[in-house]
Write a structure and sequence with these properties.
Mean pLDDT: 83
Largest sheet: 5 strands, parallel
Number of helices: 10
Shape: globular
Low-confidence stretches: 1-7, 38-48
Family: Belongs to the adenylate kinase family.
Protein name: adenylate kinase
Oligomer: single chain
Pfam family, one: ADK
CATH class of one domain: Alpha Beta
Subunit structure: Monomer.
Helix content: 40-55%
Keywords: Kinase, Nucleotide-binding, Transferase
Length: 251
């Protein structure tokens, strides 16, 4: 068994080994945290949603970032027992069960990078999922420490989202109000036309917001009763949101 492990390590690039070693040294003195990052996942305002804050929290507190969609795809690709069950459900056009998703989270938590805790992204989205997550953590003698609720008014969110335009080939993003192109509708560098993503239209946003309010607000209420929800003001500049996050996590 030892020779097999050594052979496996020989295949790992030295830079990756050093990176992991440095990460473990840095994280050895960090306190344990288990976080659920509840965000209006359909799109936080530019520069203050999960795309900005999540990596900062992850690095500062040595947490792993568990995005349930990514974990499901990885489990299916790796053909783990849970991944095989998930694929069977998806092939039938069914939703992957909450128990399966919780099981995949349970497996992912055992990784060395998750020893100090984790940020959950995209789960739980319903109160039932939150209850199942709590049950799983309780079996391990753990619990959720903090829920970060990136609160933002629907009208502000609509202004931020529906004003976004992108240059498809480069990925450059613009906003009609906050970061407009020099010439309306065209990329600053190439002069090519900008497009609006299908998800950034008012109709799609309205539908997603309705789903959010209906499904996820009860989750926030569920954790509020436990006294672990921190209300953040997602409309503020990113540095101010980061400061709010730090205050919430040091409380």
């Amino acid at each position: 068994m030892a020779s097999s492990s050594a052979a496996n390590l020989e295949d790992v690039p030295s830079v990756d080994l050093m990176t992991e070693l440095l990460r473990r040294m840095k994280c050895a003195s960090k306190p344990d945290k288990r976080l659920i990052l509840i965000i209006v996942w359909l799109a936080g305002p530019p520069g203050s949603g999960k795309g900005t804050q999540s990596p900062i929290i992850k690095d500062e507190y040595c947490l792993c970032h568990l995005a349930t969609g990514d974990m499901l795809r990885a489990a299916v690709a790796a053909k783990t027992p849970l991944g095989i069950k998930a694929k069977e459900a998806m092939d039938k056009g069914e939703l992957v069960s909450d128990d399966l998703v919780v099981g995949i989270i349970d497996e992912a938590m055992k990784k060395p990078s998750c020893q100090k805790g984790f940020i959950l992204d995209g789960f739980p989205r319903t109160e039932v999922q939150a209850q199942k997550l709590d049950e799983m953590l309780e079996k391990q003698g753990k619990k959720v420490d903090k829920v970060l609720n990136f609160a933002i008014d629907d009208a502000v969110l609509e202004e931020r989202i529906t004003g976004r335009w992108i240059h498809p080939s480069s990925g450059r993003t613009y906003h009609t109000k906050f970061a407009p192109p020099k010439v309306p509708g065209v990329d600053d560098v190439t002069g090519e036309p900008l497009i609006q993503r299908k998800d950034d239209t008012a109709a799609v946003l309205k539908s997603r917001l309705e789903a959010f309010h209906k499904q996820t607000e009860p989750v926030i209420d569920y954790y509020s009763k436990k006294g672990i929800v921190a209300q953040l003001h997602a409309e503020k500049p990113p540095q101010e949101v980061t400061s709010e996050v730090q205050k919430a996590l040091s409380a």
